[in-house]
Each structure stands twice: as C-alpha cells, then as structure tokens.
Amino acid sequence: MTENIRPAATDDVSVVKAVTDAAYHHYIERIGVVPAPMEADHAAEVAAGRVFVIGDPVRGVIVLVPEAGHLFLASIAVHPDARGTGLGRRLLAFAEEYARELGLAEIRLYTNALMWENQELYPRYGYEVVERRVDGPYDRIHYRKQLA
Questions:
Q1: CA distance linking residue 106 with residue 72, whole number of Å
Q2: Which contacts (CB < 8 Å, 24+ apart) does range 30-37 have?
Q3: CA-CA-CA-CA torsion for 35, 45, 60, 101, nearest 10 degrees?
Q4: Residues 6 or more apart in contact with residue 72 via CB below 8 angstroms
Q5: How far apart are the C-alpha atoms of 133 and 126, rounded to whole Å?
Q6: How far apart are CA 44 and CA 138, in angstroms?
C-alpha cells in the first residue's frame, strides 16, 4: 500500500466522523455505552492538527495528542471495509514516527476492557499494560510503548 498518511483538513471532518463511527459502532452493544471516540469533537480535533487520515477515499483515521513527555494516541479507526489491509498497522507505525519527530520517547493509549481484540493487538506491537482504571462509564486498560 503506497497511500500517504496526511493531516486531516476541514473538508475531512464529516468523513473522519463517518470512519470513526463505522469502526466503533459495533462496540456499543458490547460495552453498553457509546465509545468515547464516537463522541469526540472531530471538527475541533482536526482544527487543532491532531487528526491524520489515510486513503482516498479516507479509510483510516488516527488522533494523536502531544503531551508532556509522551504522545497520547486518542483514537485509531479503520473503516470495516478496509480491515485486514494493513491500514491499522501503518497508522500505528506513523504514530511512532510522529512521536520521534516531536522528540517524545513514549506513546500512551487506552482501550475499553471489553474491546478484547485490542488487548491482543497492542502487545503484539510492543505496548505494555500500565493499569486498568474506571473513568466514568468506561472501564479502561491503559498502555504505553517506550520508543528506542
């Protein structure tokens, strides 16, 4: 796949929401609440330069927030039509490149405890569990990855 990852533009806000909703919608019944990425202010995140997309049409979205000492991976979403094509893996690799460009040596993220697929996925890419914590209606497992 040779498609480039690029910063999302204002014109992308509706597709960022559509891809995010499509990727997370099936979790609503399982976790009993709407996943936080579906309720994000996508326009504000795009305006802040935190959203990156891949595909034409867009099929993958990642939201990256630089914080003190680490990069927070707020959301990663691949449209169901593009699952298994490597877009998620490319977005995770991009997060590492972006963190390094910013001089950050760690990436942090969390996932809902009932999104068990992610609990199998993140350790395969070098993420380690830091803690499990309940934040409001969300039971979350927090991860980090130290970058070389």
A1: 9
A2: 30/114, 30/115, 31/112, 31/114, 31/115, 31/138, 32/137, 33/137, 33/138, 35/112, 36/75, 36/138, 37/63, 37/74, 37/75, 37/77
A3: -120
A4: 64, 65, 66, 107, 108, 109
A5: 21
A6: 22
SS3 139: strand
Count each helix (H run) and each strand (E run) in the chain, helices first: 5, 7
Provide the token pair at 39.
């309720």
Judged by DSSP in three states, 129 sits in: strand
Closest by Cα among 46, 103, 114 to 74: 46
Q: Are 106 and 71 in contact (CB under 8 A)?
A: yes
Q: What is the DSSP string of 59-97?
A: EEEEEEEEETTEEEEEEEEE-GGGTTSSHHHHHHHHHHH
Convert the pLDDT of each residue in 26-50 to its tens digit. 999 999 999 999 999 999 999 999 9
Q: How far apart are CA 107 and CA 146, in angstroms?
A: 7
Which residue bears the tokens 């991009």?
94
Which pTM value belongs to this model? Answer: 0.95
pLDDT at 1: 42
Q: Which helix (H) or strand (E) holds 31?
A: helix 27-31
